[in-house]
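Filed under: proteins

Residues; backbone shape codes:
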Amino acid sequence: MTASVATAPGGTTGTALSVLPAVLHGALGWADAHRADFVLPPDVLEPHTQVNRTLKPLGELAQLCTTIRRSTAPDTPEHRTAGALITFAWDQVHAGDLLLELLRGEPFAAYPYEIYAAFAGYGLRNEGFERLAGTLSATRGWAHTEQQSNRELGLINSERRVGTAPHADAGEVLARTWLGGLSEPWMFEGPSGYALTHTVFHITDWCCLPERMPAHIDTYLRAWLPPWIDGCLESLQWDLTGELLAVAAALPGPPPTELLDAAWPALAAAQAPSGAVPETGPTVAPAQAPQEAASAGNAGQEPDPYPFLACYHSTLVTAFAAALSLKRLTTHQAENGAGQ
């Protein structure tokens, strides 16, 4: 069976490179312009506070900007913006002290550890957190916490970043995942799609170490990413499309240029003038006219057509995938030119 992205416009050589700089600039600019929406509320440590509306967006901002920072040249605005957003997020967690309080209150919860690991991967450390985390990660309860295999891989990667010995063998855990089992490709759907993308993120340290990907998984993904991305584009699943494009850019060896050239114009077309990308569904016109946005104190910014929670993740993912794709394609282009 020959896989192809049939529904994506474009597809000529170099198409991805022609749209990626603007996509990255717009998506990351949107995140920078919406710092206020990532600010943690004063009651963030209270039991009633919803983690998915507070700490999760901030942790994702830190994690994805870490990869963007590592994937962009130091003299670019995107590199500087990503670094500034990581610093902003670190300030929000009080240089790790807030995460230490979370860990004290929920000693066997994985999410404070994983959020902290995003900062640790950037070199930001909190001695108190790491001391307590070292004690907890040495317990039997920590090693035997029951969770999905792809989530366990996330914890193993976080342990690596923090400097703690992994509580389980990553290869054994990988073999139990949907992706590690090389599941029948026609079994792909939303939940399995997100499970496989995060499996890749965790085994490659958020796409920065593609050499960690086993060869048989690389072969499987090269064969089936095109029809999966095709289906996501057809069903307007922009968020999952972005994650799959990040996976495509994290494959070891030559990047899948035909796939990236075919798919990126479609995702670029879904991006609003503000830089926002919706998670799913038809794209919509801005909710405000530009003059109304200016009168609301947003002069110089494009009006937003989507609520924050309906687009922040897909917009960050788009920036993340765009930075990875841009790096892989420009590097590949430079190497090919040098070899001619």
Notes: The first helix runs from residue 15 to 33. Confidence is low (pLDDT under 50) at residues 6-10, 287-300.
